Amino acid sequence: MININDSVLLSEYDQRMILQFQDTIHDGVLDIYDNQQVSNLDFIQNLNVHKLTLYGCRYIENNITNNMIKELYIDSGCHFTNVLGLKLNNLEVLIIEENRPREETQQILIKMQNSPQFSQLRELDLFKDEACWNKRDQKMSEKIEQLTNQKSLTNLVKLKLIGNYITDIEVLSTLVNLEELDLSKNKKINISPIKYLTKLTKLSLEKCELKDIQGLSFLTNLIYLNLNGNIGLNIFPVQHLRQLNHLKLQETKIIDISILNLLINMKDLDISHNNINCFPLVKNSYQKLQNLHQMVERQNISIQFLSSTELNLSNKNISNISSIAKLKNLKKIYLNYNSIEDISTLQSLPDLTHLSLFYNKLTSYTLALPNLLELSLSYNKLEDKSGLQHSPKLENLDLNKTETTDLLTIPPQLFGLKELELSSNNLTEISYLSNFVDLQILYLSYNLQLKNIEPLKFCTQLTELSICETGVSDIWPLQFLINLKTLEIANTKVVDLHPLQYLYKLEDISAYHTCIIDVSPLAKLTLLESLNFSFNKITNAETLKHHKNFSEYDFSHQEVPKPDELTFYSKILSVHSSHKQIRKIQAENRVSKFRESMTRQKEDIKLKINEQIRVMNQNIEIWAQFIQNSNADQ
């Protein structure tokens, strides 16, 4: 930490900046934002910083000098006027995001070209959005050539030049230590020189308008290859890429992928958005495949040997899923946004743990899947949910908008649920929910006729609750939810927040468009981070301004309450206080009755003991008289 009193040579600005930022540095990491009114970075050299990130700092003018900095991240909002003063001799990582055509990136390249200070650089990322290409960016390849011809960059391990209008990369062949290279969105690029980068393990060539990729067969250490978006791509000889386990061929219009059978270590294969008619397999092929992304669903796709554990066919206009029955190793299936009516074929997959079927045409759910952990059936008009009773391990159940008006259709076997979604179901009462004592997340929004939430007082494990767009006005049962972190009560008639005043774990409250006037009950909830109380009639929002953790604080569009509304609110508070007093009196009465009962029991015991003593004394007298008479007879 810098002692400002000893830094007599520092300017007043530098001293002020050091005081502002030295306490924000954690483990050598410093983030500077535009709204912190930083105009130059001279003060950085006096701080112990290893990683520096600049967010949207548009008006920084001076140099960055600090030999301790190893990582520098400059986001797309930064508008440097002088970036040639990067005096960072130990810099290892430089990330510069570009989302508009400017000269700064080119100037940085020129500076790096002529300076040995970048000899430690191991990772360089000069991203430019392809939507912002400009004619002058055509000179970028010249700058790249000047840059990479320098011996100072031969230690580069990671290089990203996304969207930089590069066509000739001959100069990259000198970067023989590269392990990761991303040249995506550089159109019509000649990739032949890549064959010399034999240490590459990760290569991205997405949307480069490639046709022939023969040169890649020399990259025998390649593990990850992204060729997405190269329409008309000719499949290359892959027999030498035995280490490859992640391959992306999305939107390439490939038809025949039989050669991919040779990739015995494949774990993740993306062939979606293509016109593949057949997926021919030989025995033992794709035995390590864990994720298969494909867009077609046809009977002639032979996949009985496939060991994939996850399948995502969402939004594919599918109606028939009978071929999925062959995927015996599947554990997770996502079939959302389709036209599926019959899911009986899934009964042959008893090992399923995750099943998502929202936005289909289901009318019943009768599957018996004993290992299911998560199930989403939302946006299906379900008349029969009898299958739920056969999934006792369910932890997450989504029945949003499934026309569930009677909660008794949720069987007792699911009382252990952790998350339950019941929004948009025209529910009028929820007494059955008192059995779900393990619930942690509950959504009841958009049940307009729901008014009484008293059963929720038994759900004390809840951390997240949503009752937006309901008829709820009284939230007194929430006072028992001591673990609650997130609460959504927007668009309700809630007035009184006193039931929340002791919920010290609350972090987020969404309560826009309610009838709330007073937020003072939240004053002691120091963990609050996000509040949305817009469109209310709150008069004392300032009572919360001392909270330090707010990331969102919206009290906009407040109306001044009318006198009669204030009177009404006072009555509500009075009723609330009365209820508290009544509960207190009731509790005192119960204690009093208990004490009276105990007193009566004590008196009864005393009487019984005295009676027993009296009887014993009588017996003693009788025995004494008997003994005396016996002695007299003798």
UniProtKB/TrEMBL annotation:
SMART domains: LRR_SD22, LRR_TYP. PROSITE patterns: LRR (PS51450). The keyword Oxidoreductase does not apply. The keyword Repeat applies. It comes from the Eukaryota. Keywords: Leucine-rich repeat, Repeat. This is Uncharacterized protein.
